[in-house]
């Protein structure tokens, strides 16, 4: 019993609009406060985007309407979803799925 596969356009659709999912909640990379932010989109993420580019650069790409912005944000959001599913599987194995789900929902309800 379980889920073998699911299909969801949400990570890439919202990435094209500048919304990044992080381990701390949602991050709207187009916000002015990231114009000089040297940190990664998500310090807890090991994806190519987070290892290589700063929040300031990602924001710049959106401001300049560069297509690379969509790709880098999509890479990050897809990596986040892969991590999320792995962490959920581990929580299920430990019998802590409800606690894990509640903690994720709390972070995302708060926003940035």
Strand order of the largest sheet: 1-2
Biggest sheet features? 2 strands, antiparallel
Global geometry: elongated
Query: Would you tell me the overall average pLDDT?
Result: 92
Strand runs, count: 2
* Radius of gyration based on Cα positions: 15 Å
The end-to-end span amounts to 36 Å
Order of helices and strands: HEEHHHH
How many structural domains in the coordinates? 1
Helix percentage: 55-70%
pLDDT < 50 runs, ≥5 residues = none
Strand content: 5-15%
Structural class comes to mainly alpha
Output the number of helix runs: 5
Summarize the structure.
The chain is mainly alpha-helical.
Question: What would you note in describing this structure?
Answer:
The chain has 112 residues and is mainly alpha-helical. It has one domain (10-110). The protein contains five helices and two strands; from the N terminus they run αββαααα. Strands 1-2 form a two-stranded antiparallel ribbon. β1 and β2 form a beta hairpin. α3 crosses α4 and α4 (67-94) packs antiparallel against α5 (97-110). The longest helix is centred in the C-terminal third of the chain and has 28 residues, at 67-94. The N and C termini lie far apart (36 Å). The model has no long low-confidence stretch (mean pLDDT 92).
């Amino acid at each position: 019993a379980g889920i073998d596969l699911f299909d969801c356009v949400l990570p890439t659709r919202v990435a094209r609009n500048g919304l990044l999912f992080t381990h701390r909640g949602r991050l709207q990379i187009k916000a002015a406060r990231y114009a000089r932010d040297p940190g990664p989109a998500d310090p807890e993420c090991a994806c190519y985007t987070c290892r290589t580019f700063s929040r300031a650069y990602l924001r710049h790409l959106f401001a300049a309407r560069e297509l690379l912005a969509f790709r880098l944000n999509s890479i990050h959001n897809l990596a986040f979803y892969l991590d999320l599913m792995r962490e959920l599987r581990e929580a299920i194995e430990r019998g802590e799925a409800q606690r894990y789900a509640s903690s994720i929902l709390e972070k995302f309800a708060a926003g940035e």
